[in-house]
Amino acid sequence: MNDQTLIKMTGITKTFPGVVANDSIDFDLRSGEVHSILGENGAGKTTLMNILSGIYQPDQGEIYVRGQKTNIRSPRDSLRLGIGMVYQHFALVPPLTVLENIILGFEGGMMLNLKKAEKKLQQLAEKYGLSMDYHQKVSDISVGERQITVIIKILYQGSEILILDEPTSVLTPIEAKELFRTLDSLRKMGKAVVLITHKLSEALAISDRITILKLGRKVAELAGEELRQMGHEAASQKILNVMFGDMPIVEASVVAKELADQAVLVLNRLEAINTRGVVGLKAVTLSIRKGEIFGIAGVDGNGQKTLAEVIGGQRKIKSGQILFNGKDISHASICDRFEMGICYITDDRIGEGCVLDMDLAENAIIQCYYQVPYSRHMVINHQVINAHAEDLIRRFNVKATGPGDRAGTLSGGNIQKFILARGLSTKPALVVCNKPTYGLDARTERYIQELLLEESKQGTSILLISSDMDELLNYSDRIGVLFNGELLAVLDRADAAPEIIGKLMLGIIG
Asked: Angle at Cα 500 formed by Cα 207 and Cα 442, nearest 5°?
């Protein structure tokens, strides 16, 4: 690894109303290294990198780029300094080709010379081992290829520093491996990479250094090679202890129980229209047994959300049948399904899971406000509701001062815990979870996973939709793979190798 320091941030402090996001943080980045940033939700990881990329300006502190003190006042300033950031949601124009997207904003004059641009791209591809069909429309390429397109765009602009924010959150296992091969190639060519991630395995696999943030402060900087020499389990333990204090590693395992023969949920040749107005589910047939965790894998946009909404009642079916405990609920309302014991946990915890301007007490009974004991004869019992919300906060370890807190003041992880607490408190027979741990820190992620595992042991059936392969493999009894709205296969846990699932996620059968 080259010791040339490209970036040096000293004493970086950034506050928002009521929150110190970064508190006197020192951070540096060298050429030819991958430097990962770990920390629980709200630790200040993205804020620190948003300062480096010009989205925010620090309240205090200094930034040096290649030894020169610099004020980065905008993303354009950051790009001029050779710093490019790859966000989770790619800023691409789908109707345009890969080539047009890459040169968009950097055409270089009144006349657009596509041949010259393509020649430059071919040189970049040869140099960094990045091959693509630049004449394809972005709308026609995979999520992994879109991510590579953004990386190539940054390299095309001449950037020496790449910042990636949770880059594998939307990738298949195969695409994630390809991304890390790309990052290793960039490192070998002298580029510097900052990797923001909450996945310890990723940080351990590729990092030269790992910086850990906690409550807005830098609490440790660890050498990647030293951690790898310790072994994965010991290294993970060390990182978790730094992040959260002494925290034993719990080995996740498939539920050890006899699955009941009775099917709690049966979908029979189910078809449904998605939000784009096209068929999002195509003749999907599956059954979920009592106490089973049934995992659903698939690249985002292949019918997962449509499936969850159809079961929860948020989306009507086009054809087929849904049976719940032997009863046909194909056309039952959301309210009726809720009262039967179906709990739907949406992937959009902010937009759909709660009302940010309402307090926690109000959010706690938003689905059952009309039921006794929360109301009688349509008269709300605020004392009972507050006690219920306080109980949820306490039992599920939600970081809040009380039931009067607005939901919007909680962190994403605590909102997620509260939504799960609300749903599980109704003692459902079936829980439909769409990405319940997406974007959460390691401790909150594990807490929710163990919570769902315990629910299954008590006999609750769980449909677990996840983009986290480790989560699916460790916690599911069976795994179904959706591709383009079709259920291509259902695999027992013993047969569900990552390579097999990854191929199915890309539509490769056999």
From this structure: 40
